[in-house]
C-alpha cells in the first residue's frame, strides 16, 4: 500500500561496478588528448618571430665584455679579432704611450657595431695593471667593485617608481680571463681570481698566445688547467648547474671539454692560397686565426657571439644579478 510519509533516501551514491569506479576516478573535464591543438587552417602564430626580429633590429641590443689578464697577453688584439674591427682601448687611442699603471685601473670603451641591419652596442672593459705588480694582493678588488657597481646602477633604475621603459644595461655579461702560456699549472693568482669572480660573473678562461706552445704542450697544459678548476671547485662558463635540457647539456659538455680555449689573436690579413685570411706570419708559415686546425679561436668566437651570446645575458640577469638584487634588498630591509 501507499504511505503518506516521505521515502527515505540514502546520501551515499549508488553502488557501481569496480570498472566504472576506476573510470570515474579521472575527472571528466580533464580528458586525455594530444598535447598540441590541431589547427584547421593557417593562423599566423609564427609571425611573432618576425615581429620580435623587427623590434630587435630597430632597438638593437647591448653586450658588455670584460678582458682580464697581464700586460702583453694580446687582450686588445683578441677583442679586435673577435669583432673584426678596431674596438679595443689600445687601438682607439693612438699616439698614447702604453704605461703599466701602479694599480688596477678599469677602462671602458663603447662602440655601436652594425651587421646586416642588426645594431649592437658593444662595451669593452679592459683591466690594465692586473697581475703586473710584484705584490698582486687583492688586485681583483677593483674588478669586483666595478662589476657590483654595474649591478647597483641597474638595480637603482629598476626600483624607481617611474622607471625607463628600457633600462640601460651596463652589467658585465662575460669576462674573458687570459691565462699566461706557461705550460705548467695555474698560478695562485689565476685560481683566486676565477674562484672569486665566477660567483658574480660568467668567466671564460683562455690560454693566451697559444702559438708559443707545441700541440702536445698545449693539450697537457689544458688538462692541468681542467684538473685545477675541478680540484678547487671553480665553475666557469658554461656552468653545469644552468643547463636547461639534455640538448643544451650535450652541447655544453662538448664546450666544457675544450675549455680553456687555446687562442691566437691577429688583426692583420695575409694571402693564403688566393684568399685573404686573418693570421700571424712567422718564419715557418702563417698561423690562421680562424682555422680550427691552427688554434681554437673559432670556438671562442662561436661561444661568445654565435651560439651563447643571449645565454650569457640571460644568466647574468637571472642568476648573477638576481643574487645581487636579493642580497641588497635583504640588507636594506634589515632593522637599523
From TrEMBL:
Record-stated family: Belongs to the TRAFAC class TrmE-Era-EngA-EngB-Septin-like GTPase superfamily. Septin GTPase family.
Protein name per Swiss-Prot or TrEMBL: SEP12 protein
GO MF annotation, one: GTP binding
Compartments where found: Cytoplasm, Cytoskeleton
Signal peptide start and end residues: none
Bias (Basic and acidic residues): 1-11
Domain Septin-type G: 59-331
Pfam families named among the record's database cross-references: Septin
UniProt-listed CDD domains: CDC_Septin (cd01850)
Source organism, top-level taxon: Eukaryota
Main localisation: cytoplasm
